[in-house]
Amino acid sequence: MDVSSIKALTFDVFGTVVDWRTTIIAEGEEIGKAKGLTIDWARFADTWRAGYFSSMDLVRSKKLPWTKIDTLHRMVLDNLLIEFGIAGLSEAEKYRLNLVWHRLKPWPDAIPGLNRLRTRYIIATLSNGNMALLTNMAKNAGLPWDCILSAELAKRYKPDPEAYLMAADLLGLRTDQIMHVAAHKADLKAAHGQGMKTAFVPRPLEYGPTREVETTPEPWIDLFATDFEDLATKLGT
Amino acid sequence: MDVSSIKALTFDVFGTVVDWRTTIIAEGEEIGKAKGLTIDWARFADTWRAGYFSSMDLVRSKKLPWTKIDTLHRMVLDNLLIEFGIAGLSEAEKYRLNLVWHRLKPWPDAIPGLNRLRTRYIIATLSNGNMALLTNMAKNAGLPWDCILSAELAKRYKPDPEAYLMAADLLGLRTDQIMHVAAHKADLKAAHGQGMKTAFVPRPLEYGPTREVETTPEPWIDLFATDFEDLATKLGT
């Protein structure tokens, strides 16, 4: 494809840039050791992530007013602690555990790939994570964003169109000057619907080693890359 | 002062971080040479900056609807070109000149100071410049922001309270966990009014070598620093 008109790349974050599942399992296991708990932390992580989608859908369908992801994560966590029988955490410990999403670790190719991409393009997040979460995550992990953009700035969660249009407006670009990068087809389909170019970077391990990832081509996917280094090469950096 | 409760520093940008006057004069002189024009570029820069304040006040007083700084700068520039008798610029040249604000150069101490400060604090812009302007400026100049915040996100220009409250909300902090840094007293007074801590970094050369800068202490200034390196030292980094 002709990449000469692309000025900026926007990135989905959870799953695309960072490996939420491995980070949550690792922190869970530390807590388990400290508290003497035997928990299936992989199932805990997957259930937390699933709860995030359900609670976000309540906001998207206006059954909940605008609510930041940090707050949605905490609502889900409070239920999870009961469901998994995790007792004995102080409020400070729960608060800290909820912020594990601020400490997610990038996939190994993410930072080298982003450093190459930013030599030519503006690179920005376009995530449903709130601004504080994304800012803290970038600082913790060393993610070299030029700019942090969040659905919070539109008060509309992806895949609602307003989230993508907000990014173009704030970057001062037309949507067709932006390529959205994600490991999730629904996100790319919605970005394409607003005129953005799209790059699909499947993350086969996002949900662990047993979940098959669907990677068939689609008319609304402009570019397919195996990871961020491959993306950097395909985008001429 | 006790700095232990400070989590983030927000920075005014035009004049505080970057030297708008010198950059505009330098780019003006290049244009003058190329076009064979004899213009007082220092007066041109000062008049542009003054026009920015007047046009922003039209937005603050609701005589103009919300308008980005890039657009306000262009409105002022179009008048300036007539006033200074600068003819013969193509639309592409005017467009490029207007974006000189995206290319402003930092004061020499700014980047070394910010790099020290960001080892301990979240550092973010809190500027009336629009997001695209601040993002491009950071990329051009290598300013190491953790996060770019703009009055554009509140659609209210500083010193309106909403601009400061927006920063605290998006950073997920109380205003008293944030220190606002500026070379302009009115900005600090307004930040203090919303509960922020304040640091005054006078920039005696902002308006050139002949304009005296008023640096008397004020009850709403918490910290006085001669430059960003001095600020980094005083904030324990």
List the helices and strands and how they pair.
Two copies of one chain form a homodimer.
Chain A: E1 8-11, H1 20-35, H2 41-60, H3 69-83, H4 91-98, H5 110-117, E2 122-125, H6 131-141, H7 161-171, E3 178-182, H8 185-193, E4 197-200, E5 223-224, H9 228-234
Parallel strand pairs in A: 1-2, 1-3, 3-4, 4-5
Helix pairs in contact in A: 1-2, 2-3, 5-9
Helix content of chain A: 40-55%
First-to-last CA distance of chain A: 15 Å
* Largest β-sheet summary of chain A: 5 strands, parallel
Q: Can you tell me the CATH topology of the largest domain in chain A?
A: Rossmann fold
Characterise this structure.
- The structure is a homodimer of 237-residue chains.
- Chain A has 237 residues and is of the alpha/beta class.
- Chain A has two domains: 8-19 and 104-234, 3-Layer(aba) Sandwich (Rossmann fold); 20-102, Putative phosphatase, domain 2 (DNA polymerase, domain 1).
- Chain A contains nine helices and five strands.
- Chain A has a five-stranded parallel β-sheet with strand order 2-1-3-4-5, with helices on one face.
- In chain A, helix 8 links the parallel strand 3 and strand 4.
- In chain A, helix 1 crosses helix 2, helix 2 (41-60) crosses helix 3 (69-83) and helix 5 runs parallel beside helix 9 (228-234).
- The longest helix of chain A is centred in the N-terminal third of the chain and has 20 residues, at 41-60.
- The two termini of chain A are 15 Å apart.
- The relative contact order of chain A is 0.17.
- The model of chain A has no long low-confidence stretch (mean pLDDT 97).
- Chain A binds chain B through residues 68, 70, 118, 122, 124, 130-133, 135-136, 138-139, 146-148, 152-153, 170-173, and chain B through 68, 70, 118, 122, 124, 130-133, 135-136, 138-139, 146-148, 152-153, 170-173.
